[in-house]
Amino acid sequence: MNLETANHFIKAVSIVLPKNPLHKEDRLKLCNINERKYQLLQENSGIFNHFISDNSTYASDLATQALEELFSKDILKKDEI
User: Fold this and answer.
1) How far apart are CA 51 and CA 58, in angstroms?
2) 1, 19, 29, 31: least CB-packed within 10 angstroms?
3) DSSP secondary-structure letter at 79?
4) Who's near 75: CB < 8 A, 6+ residues apart?
């Protein structure tokens, strides 16, 4: 997929998620809603899974891992960023 803008384009997308899934019971407590409202939220948002990082993993760690995957598969080069 190539999406072009005036002076930029998206060459690739890489997604890295934390390893710890958030279970349904925990999601209901976190959102403070009942199961029916949660199902409506899922249907409208299209988000059906949640993952939680441990306290020593930051968004920048996940972003770095996603970039490293693109570099290792030779999809992106560091000098292209």
Assistant:
1) 13
2) 1
3) G
4) 11, 12
Pure H helices in the chain: 24-31, 35-45, 59-72
- The per-residue pLDDT for range 16-69, each reduced to its tens digit, is 999 888 888 888 888 888 989 989 989 999 988 889 899 999 999 999 999 999
Question: What's 37's DSSP letter?
Answer: H
Annotate 5-43 with b (16+ C-beta within 10 A) or e (fewer). eeeeeeeeebeeeeeeeeeeeebeeeeeeeeeeeeeeee
Cα separation of 43 and 26, whole Å? 18
Give residue 3's pLDDT band: very low, low, confident or very high (50, 70, 90).
Answer: low
